[in-house]
Amino acid sequence: MRFSSLVAAAMLVAVPVAVQAAEVTPLVTADWLKANAADENVKIIDIRDEIEGTDLGELPYIANAVVAPYASAGWRTEVDGVPGQIPPEAEIAELIGNLGIDGDDHVVIVPWGTDSSEFGGATRVYWTFKYLGHNDVSILDGGWRQYDAQGGERVAEAAKPVPVEFPYEIQPQLRATTPDVQAALEKGTKLIDGRPTEQFVGQSKSPVVRVTGTIPGAVNIPHSTLYSGEYASFAQPETIATLAQGVGLAEGEENIVFCNTGHWASIAWFALSEVAGNKNTAMYDGSMAEWAADPARPIQ
Predict the structure, then answer these.
(1) What is the Cα–Cα distance from 142 to 13, expressed in whole angstroms?
(2) CA 114 – CA 186 distance, rounded (Å)
(3) What pTM, to 2 d.p., does this model score?
(4) Alpha carbon distance, N-terminus to C-terminus of the chain
(5) CA separation, residue 104 to residues 64, 101, 137, 204, 265 (Å)
(6) If the chain, 300 residues long, is cut into consecutive pieces of 10 residues, what is the mean pLDDT of each piece?
(7) Which helix (H) or strand (E) holds 284?
């Protein structure tokens, strides 16, 4: 869809209501960001990958934003042979502090917004902040696509951050481990697979996962159902509620979401926990890459 028609198309779907800077919501609009970008306690993180390789001309950056590409800045790493894991707490806190972000800042994360998988970079970084105990964090709904389509200011160079100390307090309830998943199987806790249906049913698999299949008893909410690439807009609460009800997840019911490496799972976690408000949702960071690595663990 051409950017010139994106704004008109976006009017066909509900979008988050702009709020005052002091009120933090999971999603903010491009209008909100334009109005609050210069606030000294609003810190914009541009996580778009390969900005330099695009045709955006001499003004490819977001005004007042620091750049920390999702794929290369260090948001994820390999741990004990499992790819895509959150780095050690002190390491990820140093990365954030080097972006000039402290404990008093409202962080706004901006991806490209091209499709659900790419938008997952934003939900994963958002989860990282929440896991570190930083609650003042939002994602720009629609990412760069909405920002640019609605006339957001573009600049030639990214902002130069002044490193600070980023305080953190781990929230372990947001991150499920392999023992947590094993306990969930015994307890009957709902397990939600955020991968495409083809991977859920075992017709295909990620190269980082040993075998096809899913965790026994899991249900499927494909990540692509949670973000509209056509309209550059995240799913509304009522849509998420319908999807949750469709897989038998009751309102507020305890659940663990997973995928291959905790990327697509972050989309489902963000939808259920943050947009729909089910705070009994945890994310299995290791996901199928870790679960399937041990042949002794059951695969359906």
Answers:
(1) 12
(2) 39
(3) 0.92
(4) 39
(5) 17, 8, 11, 44, 28
(6) 36 36 87 95 97 91 97 97 96 98 98 98 98 98 97 96 98 98 98 98 97 98 98 97 98 98 98 98 98 97
(7) strand 281-284
